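Task: sequence in, structure out. Protein: DNA/pantothenate metabolism flavoprotein C-terminal domain-containing protein.
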Amino acid sequence: MAAAATRTLPELGPVVMAAAGTRTLPELGPVVMAANAAMYDTECSDFFSDCVPPPHAESSAKAMAEFAVRHAAQGRRVVLVTSGGTKVPLESRTVRFLDNFSSGWRGAVSVEYFLGLGYAVVFLHRHRSLYPFSRRYAGLNMLDALTAVLDKKTTCWRVEADQAMLPDIVAVLQRYQAVREADLLFPVEFSTLSDYLYLLRAAAQALNSIGREIK
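Result:
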């Protein structure tokens, strides 16, 4: 194991062969898995030590852990949903980058589904990807659906929504407000691949702290 931890995949062959000795093929499974796990742990450590964490990594990790513990204590299950693509800068002073495009539609719908089942949701999503509930109106210029109306009695302006342009807006808004009031949704944004991996690890650790079973 100590030898495997610092070696690349091609170099692991002799390690596994040496460990094999007189063992049969079925007995080699744990040896190979242990060697792979050690190599994986080393690569992960190297990655996180080489990358700069997002500015809000520490505060987000703490907040996600508190969110998970609070809802678990109330007997509510907590789920993590990730959504949207990632980008990788090609230069240190980023002008060009590779972008894995994803609208985030499936993630936003999944959040609504889990909320409907009574879960609390940690929503790790790409900046400006589709958001739960509002994703229904993503293709609409919201200003086209709103009208400023002057109340002659109070001389105050109010905003009215054209419900023909915003189908089911009352029900959607009521559901969203209920989720907010109950604090059932915790959104966390990312942009780059390294941001995503840092925050994904933090989210996994936050949920791991509450265990698999809710009592």
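The first helix runs from residue 2 to 5.
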